[in-house]
Structure prediction request, 502 residues.
Amino acid sequence: MFWRSMRSKSVWLGAAATLAAALAFLLLYEWIVYKVPVNQIYLPASSWSDEVVYSKQLSAVVQYGAPQGYFGFNESHADIGTFAAWGPAIFWLYTIPGFFFRRDNAFIWCNLFFAVAGWFVFARAARLKAWQQAAFAVVLACLNAPIRYIFSAMQEPLHYALVLAITGTAVLVKRSGRKPAWIALCVLCAAATLARPYNAVLWLYPLVLAWPRRRALAGCLAGAAASLAGTLVLMSKFYAPYFFTNVDTTPLQMLAHLQVFSAVKYTAGKLVTAFAQVGVEIAGALTGQGGGFYLTFLLLLAVTVVCLVWDRRHHRPVFWKGCALAAAAVIFLALMLMYRTAEASRHTLVLDVLLLAALVLESPRPAVGTAGLALVLAAAGILNLTASGGYGMPARHDAVAEELAVLRTELVQSQQAVDSDDPWDHTIAYAFGDNAHVGMLYAAPDGMGLQFDETAYLLDPEHEIRSRYMMTASGSEVEQRLLAEGWTLLHEGHYCTVYERA
Prediction:
């Protein structure tokens, strides 16, 4: 009884130590590298326009269950619901910690929660030793970019957490075979698939572990099919259209019409073009022009391949490296085929974490060697991903904060006078392309929808502006249209001008 009690106490202490170490590492790293304590990060001063869209959707879900206004682009919206092009599954997941974290930095605290939770599940389920966890932290620190995204209002950290939790839970399934572990693994794979369609590839983990048991395979295949069908329904009905075709499904449409040769030809041409563009981005990184997401991914991919071949020849474990390589390769090809390379580059950060997890499990020493190589590249100005490369942390900006508070008060008072259930009456549009500060959109009251409208779209008289509010810059061409149509001035400041439809 005594030894059982001591063992239980040791388990709890170990779990607490893992959580504390992961959180302390991330907070200290952010403060040391970016010189801005996490409680002083000020997202409205950021220039990343996607951040405000994520932040305001989260606050709307937490406050009302769904946005009251439309999120979209060029006055578009989803067929069902009011979410933007990346919801609603993302925000259902973010609501889990979101009920406890409020205000403008809620997304950052949610990202920290997911990053630490994923790290914790991976470390405890896979029974990582302290030095393996330290190796994981060292490589992340040297790569930099994955950690930078944790301290933003972007969704990448959720996917870090999912791939880490899937890897750790898969190790637990392989070791124990217990039913609760199987259920957890399938739930995680389903959640990942609903969040991003190409994450359906992660069902490879339970499928490989289930082989060759027919019943287990059937269950995994059913779960994969159901979650993939669910995410396709979400994409087609609950996502607002983007500025451009964000996901290219042309080859699938060709196959559906039995145009096999055309689908193969289109796919080959698309991949050649995409790889050429990746080469251009890597060449830019090698000449010190910043970026380097693709270079980092290919570096980790190469290390993993070399380790797999070496370990295979020397009869060492390669199972997790093989799974991670297969999943990463398929997802990367899907990104090249279905996404634009500029947008797909940050998606490779999740693949970095997936490959790193496999290396830490089976080849931690080569992983640390990768960290050394990353430091050399960073010192040479090739991996220019820190503050000097344009990825600084937005700090408190008094002038922005003061005008933001004024605009928020004005919008709240205006909304209180609106007696309408029409989502357009609870939507503010932003003139994407003029000089209005995107951070001013944080002034939108919780629940209000945001539209990102290109100035070319707004200047076309055939396009009706349906949003009740329009944010633009003083003296802009968009402002001239609003004045000509009789809009009422609601706010005029240094960073933006907002009009209300008469």
